[in-house]
Amino acid sequence: MGRMSALKDKLKADLAASMKARDEVRLRTIRMALAAVNVEEVAGKEARELSDDEVVKILTREAKKRREASEAFAGAGRAEQAQAELDEQAVLEEYLPAQLSDDELNALVDEAIAESGAQGPKAMGQVMKVLNPKVAGRAEGGRVAQAVRARLSA
Fold this sequence. Notes:
This protein is mainly alpha-helical. The protein has 2 domains: about 5-95, Hypothetical Protein Yqey, Chain: A, domain1 (Orthogonal Bundle), CATH 1.10.1510; about 100-150, Arc Repressor Mutant, subunit A, CATH 1.10.10. It has helices spanning about 5-20, 25-40, 50-75, 80-95, 100-115, 125-135, 140-150. α1 packs antiparallel against α2 (about 25-40) and α5 packs across α6 (about 125-135). The radius of gyration is 18 Å and the shape is globular.
């Protein structure tokens, strides 16, 4: 096994700290995040250590699940469960890179369009190929796609 990801080390340290502090929400959330990371590490033919980027992808996916569950609970009139999901999402987001503002995202979209020479809505794939590595973990895929679509059809 290679070098463990610094982000995973931090999660483990924070897990111990939240146990000592008896912070139930943090404890539950970090435990779940580490479980998701461990599942990913043993998926596939052989176990492996994940890079920080891979851990960020997992945490982003887990945060998205929390947001969607919160919306579903809120829609069903279950405010308490909705709030619990939002609390977990907030803990996860502490470990993610800062999200891009709309202006920053639009600037990167314009840059990617110029770089790829793409024109028209059919060229969305070309732009996404250039853009995705630049925004990884800092903006949700749906939001990025929407920004690209808006720029290409303008």
